[in-house]
Write a structure and sequence with these properties.
Elements (H helix, E strand, L loop, with lengths): L5 H10 L4 E2 L4 E6 L3 H18 L4 E5 L3 E6 L9 H14 L1
Antiparallel strand pairs: 1-2, 2-4, 3-4
Helix pairs in contact: 2-3
Length: about 90
């Protein structure tokens, strides 16, 4: 799958206002209520990522901050798959 050109990525970022484009990846940190809520979000995203066969990098810091980093390594940057998964992660986090 091809990476998004600058204009298409800029359009996508308008739909993902809480995400940032960082070194060829979409990145967002969620601050959850507590440890269990953080793990519940990670588990929900893991299920969706497995279903899509598209897996983000995940980092848990402190006990309630969860950072997701989305990039298509095989394509060398951000693709539509990353944008779609970011949108789904936003839905799951609600």
């Amino acid at each position: 799958m091809p990476t998004l050109d600058d204009a298409t990525l800029a359009d996508a970022m308008r739909e993902l206002p809480d995400w940032r484009n960082e070194d060829g990846a979409l990145v967002r940190t969620f601050r959850r209520r507590d440890w269990r809520d953080a793990i519940a979000l990670v588990n929900a995203v893991a299920e969706e990522a497995e279903r899509r066969d598209h897996h983000p990098d995940v980092e848990i810091t402190g006990y309630r901050n969860v950072t997701f980093r989305l990039t298509s390594h095989d394509s060398g940057g951000v693709t539509k798959r990353d944008v779609n998964l970011a949108m789904q992660i936003d839905e799951l986090a609600r």
